[in-house]
């Protein structure tokens, strides 16, 4: 996939995954995103015409709130013509394949596609059928990847803790096994040289010990024992399907062992930050007090999402 997303000069052609992305490419995107920050949140006007005349389509085969709206806003803030396709109200309902849908929109002159899909590897597969010059951005595929979420998470950590991650202790907590966010963050944290990565959650919701995504991580299910000295706490959403699958006994039982409370947060490093990709189940992964407290960077992650998506769209289509 790395070969597919970089051209022979090492320039980004599609944004499919952070797995294997060279550190300089990652850092360059983060610096560009930081430079877009004020424009992204409406405080500055620079770059407003950078993609004027370029058509971008958000093509979502799965629901989304933050990712879709922030990609839309990012493309609009760059002056692109933005259209949106929602599988639940389109010909996908009549059985049209995703490839045909994509090719039809491409025939209308769309050059950038932001795609969310329930299948692992779907965006890379679709990248194999588009014309040269058409760019695909993965907005989350199956359990595999969510590169712009990984980038916005890294940008948030840089803003809070500085660009040198070598002394940082970062912990990812929750259903790591089914989380494309966790997988993506793990690739990015390793590429950026994070000092220590801890992965914690119920044993049946952690990837197998032989899964390369856990390489170099400290892994365990005892949240209380693993909190000591942690600088960044990345809490993951507990997906409702895990309850119906019987993987979690009850929300209360989950919260009691893996929920982040103010009391637990006091045991992390002083100045630790709390992150969550959203949507939050309040009272399950985090209490209201923590989600809305002074150590929460959750809404800053959302703001950074617009900046990162502006940077990614410009890197590919600019
Ligand atoms: C995540 C996703 O859909 O991958 N949300 C998001 O994009 N911010 C995480 C989740 O739904 O658990």
UniProtKB/TrEMBL annotation:
Highest taxon above the source species: Bacteria
Q: What is its EC number?
A: 2.1.3.2
* Name of the encoding gene: pyrB
Q: Which family does the record assign?
A: Belongs to the aspartate/ornithine carbamoyltransferase superfamily. ATCase family.
- Pfam family name, one: OTCace
**The entry's keywords:** Pyrimidine biosynthesis, Transferase
Task: Please give the pathway this protein is involved in.
Answer: Pyrimidine metabolism; UMP biosynthesis via de novo pathway; (S)-dihydroorotate from bicarbonate: step 2/3
Pinpoint the Aspartate/ornithine carbamoyltransferase carbamoyl-P binding domain residues: 13-159
Could you identify this protein by its name?
A: Aspartate carbamoyltransferase
Q: Which InterPro entries match?
A: Asp/Orn_carbamoyltranf_P-bd, Asp/Orn_carbamoylTrfase, Asp/Orn_carbamoylTrfase_sf, Asp_carbamoyltransf, Asp_carbamoyltransf_Asp/Orn-bd
Describe the subunit structure. Answer: Heterododecamer (2C3:3R2) of six catalytic PyrB chains organized as two trimers (C3), and six regulatory PyrI chains organized as three dimers (R2).
Known function: Catalyzes the condensation of carbamoyl phosphate and aspartate to form carbamoyl aspartate and inorganic phosphate, the committed step in the de novo pyrimidine nucleotide biosynthesis pathway.
The uppermost taxa in this organism's lineage are: Bacteria, Pseudomonadati, Pseudomonadota, Gammaproteobacteria, Lysobacterales
User: What NCBIfam families is this protein classified in?
Assistant: asp_carb_tr, PRK00856.1
**Residues reported to bind L-aspartate:** 94, 180, 237
Query: What are the GO MF terms of this UniProt record?
Result: amino acid binding; aspartate carbamoyltransferase activity
GO cellular component assignments? cytosol
UniProt source species = Stenotrophomonas koreensis
Query: What catalytic activity does the UniProt entry give for this protein?
Result: carbamoyl phosphate + L-aspartate = N-carbamoyl-L-aspartate + phosphate + H(+)
Gene Ontology BP term (one): 'de novo' pyrimidine nucleobase biosynthetic process
């Amino acid at each position: 996939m790395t070969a597919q997303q970089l051209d022979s000069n090492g320039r980004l052609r599609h944004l499919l995954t952070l797995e294997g992305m060279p550190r300089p490419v990652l850092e360059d995107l983060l610096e560009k995103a930081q430079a877009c920050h004020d424009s992204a949140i409406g405080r500055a006007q620079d770059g407003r015409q950078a993609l004027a005349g370029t058509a971008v389509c958000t093509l979502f085969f799965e629901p989304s709130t933050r990712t879709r709206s922030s990609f839309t806003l990012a493309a609009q803030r760059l002056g692109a013509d933005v259209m949106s396709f929602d599988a639940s109200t389109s010909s996908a309902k009549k059985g049209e394949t995703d490839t045909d849908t994509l090719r039809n929109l491409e025939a209308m002159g769309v050059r950038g596609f932001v795609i969310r899909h329930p299948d692992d590897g779907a965006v890379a597969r679709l990248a194999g059928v588009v014309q040269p010059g058409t760019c695909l951005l993965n907005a989350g595929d199956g359990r595999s990847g969510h590169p712009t979420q990984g980038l916005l998470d890294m940008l948030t950590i840089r803003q809070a803790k500085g660009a040198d991650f070598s002394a940082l202790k970062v912990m990812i907590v929750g259903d790591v096994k089914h989380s494309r966010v966790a997988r993506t963050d793990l690739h990015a944290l390793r590429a950026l040289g994070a000092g220590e990565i801890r992965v914690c959650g119920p044993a049946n919701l952690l990837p197998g010990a032989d899964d390369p995504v856990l390489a170099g991580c400290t892994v365990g299910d005892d949240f209380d024992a693993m909190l000591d000295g942690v600088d960044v706490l990345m809490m993951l959403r507990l997906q409702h399907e895990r309850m119906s699958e019987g993987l979690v006994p009850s929300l209360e039982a989950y919260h009691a062992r893996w929920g982040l409370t103010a009391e637990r947060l006091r045991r992390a490093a002083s100045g630790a930050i709390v992150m969550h990709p959203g949507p939050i189940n309040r009272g399950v992964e985090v209490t209201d007090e923590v989600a809305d407290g002074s150590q929460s960077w959750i809404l800053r992650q959302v703001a950074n999402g617009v900046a990162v998506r502006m940077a990614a769209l410009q890197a590919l289509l600019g």
